[in-house]
């Protein structure tokens, strides 16, 4: 099993100084990675924000959960990521997704193709970027991209390329992740295009059992080298785990057992959370946990207890 490590998902700060301070706090609390999403809503632009965060810190990795493939041409994104990885001396974790949030497409006027098309386009894009990073060149003829004699410059610091994160909830995208990525994020289903009841219904323990089995089948011998990642959504460090779980379950219209068993939820004392994470790593292999800014300080004692173990 992979050793535990932890990241924080941030979105914004009121100033450059505040963003730098936030990045330093994430690093000081023992988290390995600062992530930022990639949407057109109220958030910082990810590439600039990640660059500033890397420059403000010494050891902190930076990345996006995840870059929407449709928002940038792969040659453009490959150059930006290679540059950031070179300048940060290998502190980039590259997350890539097919795009899912309907509002992004509505606001931008981009065509929101059906999921199968978006996933195919993402797979081609990833192949192009990996070629640019690893060989310094790419010629590619696909359904969605035609690349002729492209030059991969600069060469990223990480060889053959920065660690790649692909996440999802569907069998096809998880299969691509298992075969092509270094880190696989196992997510609830986002097929609806927004976060609503459909997402809550796909956060049960049984749902994750099935997804991890799909990953194992697709990864084969690569499975031992993969990190499995969870982006959490319900994290509360509280003295009364049962009471907090019941309250949250009532708000969501589900059972306490469903909340307690879901890997996106972490509720309880520090000791209880440490125990729960060890259990979940044994069951599913989840060793890379990502929390949000609101809970990163309260969760830091869990990070101190488990990081690197």
Explain what the structure shows.
The protein is of the alpha/beta class and 309 residues long. The chain has a domain at 1-56 and 234-309. Helix content is 45%, strand content 20%. It contains 12 helices and 13 strands. It has helices at residues 16-28, 46-56, 74-87, 102-108, 115-135, 171-180, 197-200, 205-219, 241-252, 256-261, 270-284, 296-306; strands spanning 5-9, 33-36, 61-64, 67-68, 92-97, 137-141, 146-151, 164-168, 183-186, 227-231, 234-237, 265-268, 286-292. The strands form 3 sheets. Strands 1-2-3-5-8-9-10-13 form an 8-stranded parallel beta barrel, surrounded by 8 helices. A two-stranded antiparallel ribbon has the order 6-7. Helix 3 crosses helix 5, helix 6 crosses helix 8 and helix 11 crosses helix 12 (296-306).
Topology:
Layout: E1 5-9, H1 16-28, E2 33-36, H2 46-56, E3 61-64, E4 67-68, H3 74-87, E5 92-97, H4 102-108, H5 115-135, E6 137-141, E7 146-151, E8 164-168, H6 171-180, E9 183-186, H7 197-200, H8 205-219, E10 227-231, E11 234-237, H9 241-252, H10 256-261, E12 265-268, H11 270-284, E13 286-292, H12 296-306
Parallel strand pairs: 1-2, 1-13, 2-3, 3-5, 4-5, 5-8, 8-9, 9-10, 10-13, 11-12
Antiparallel strand pairs: 6-7
């Amino acid at each position: 099993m992979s050793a535990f490590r932890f990241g924080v998902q941030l979105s914004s700060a009121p100033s450059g100084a505040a963003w730098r301070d936030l990045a330093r706090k994430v690093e000081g609390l023992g988290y390995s990675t600062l992530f930022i999403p990639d949407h057109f809503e109220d958030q910082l632009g990810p590439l600039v924000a990640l660059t500033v965060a890397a420059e403000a810190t010494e050891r902190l990795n930076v990345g996006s959960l995840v870059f929407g493939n449709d928002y940038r041409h792969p040659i453009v994104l490959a150059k930006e990521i290679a540059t950031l990885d070179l300048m940060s001396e290998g502190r980039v974790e590259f997350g890539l997704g097919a795009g899912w949030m309907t509002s992004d497409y509505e606001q931008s006027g981009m065509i929101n193709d059906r999921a199968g098309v978006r996933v195919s386009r993402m797979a081609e894009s990833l192949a192009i970027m990996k070629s640019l990073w690893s060989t310094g060149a790419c010629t590619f003829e696909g359904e969605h991209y035609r690349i002729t004699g492209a030059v991969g410059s600069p060469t990223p610091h990480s060889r053959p390329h920065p660690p790649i994160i692909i996440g999802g909830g569907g069998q096809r995208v998880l299969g691509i992740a298992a075969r092509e990525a270094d880190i696989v994020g196992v997510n609830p289903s986002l097929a609806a295009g927004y976060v609503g009841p459909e997402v809550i219904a796909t956060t049960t323990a049984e749902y994750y059992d099935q997804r991890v089995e799909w990953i194992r089948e697709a990864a084969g011998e690569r499975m031992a080298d993969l990190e499995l990642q969870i982006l959490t959504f319900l994290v509360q460090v509280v003295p009364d785990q049962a009471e907090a779980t019941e309250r949250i379950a009532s708000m969501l219209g589900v059972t306490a057992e469903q909340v307690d068993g879901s890997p996106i939820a972490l509720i309880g004392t520090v000791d209880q959370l440490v125990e729960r994470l060890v259990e979940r790593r044994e069951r599913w292999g989840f060793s890379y946990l990502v929390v949000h800014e609101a809970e990163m300080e309260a969760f830091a004692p869990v990070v101190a207890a488990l990081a690197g173990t």
